[in-house]
Amino acid sequence: MSAQRTAWRDARLVAARAETGAARTLVFKIPGWPGHLAGQHVDVRLTAEDGYSTQRSYSIASATDGDLVELTVQNVPDGEVSPYLVEVLEVGDEVEIRGPVGGWFVWRPSSERPVLLVGGGSGIVPLMAMIRARRQAAGRTPFRLVYSVREPGQRFYAGELRRHDPADAGLDVAYLYTRAVPDGWPRPAGRLTVADLNTHGWPADFEPDCYVCGPTGFVETAADILIALGHDPRRIRTERFGPTGG
């Protein structure tokens, strides 16, 4: 990583909005931000008045937009960082941010291969950055998103994904619910299955680039299913998260 990306920068919160009852999107202004690729993440550091500091990594939710960077943070109960970011941080407050970080789990608008995005819970965040980067570039690469959450109220970006922006032509979205479904929903509640990815994903002979992000168990299951369906393991890129203290 270059010195420019390892340096901590002051980041001022300029806007915030709720995504769910336990998640919040934060828009930071970071002077001198070098830009980023969809799928990268940053480190966020908080420092107390007594000098104690702690940091966590968060995926970037936005396409590159000058010196503005969006993060969507899920509140982790008893965590050190996420409760502050979700419940306490106010517009005008500052934190320190370092990045962008990562070069494997990224999507570039110059790619012409079909894309399959498979997200579990807050694993949608870097995948949403890819969707937004596609939209920003007026791309025509066909995208399919399979998004698994416990129940409808836990969907991130629900309004944006259902508004049918003309720039999103070629993006198909399928929701899977593991605990509770909307009234009349055709698929019963349950975990991701072979049938789900066979129905809503791309055929393996289309040679899509697959991006899978979510809790470790979800990612391992999805990757195993894709391989069983004949997808090239070299085209399956995964990013997982587990308990980190929040």
Automatic annotation (TrEMBL):
Domain FAD-binding FR-type: start-end pairs: 6-107
Entry protein name: Oxidoreductase
Entry cofactors: FAD
Keyword DNA damage: no
One MF term in the entry's GO annotations: oxidoreductase activity
Domain of life, source organism: Bacteria
SUPFAM superfamilies from the UniProt entry: Ferredoxin reductase-like, C-terminal NADP-linked domain, Riboflavin synthase domain-like
Keyword list, A-Z: 2Fe-2S, Iron, Iron-sulfur, Metal-binding
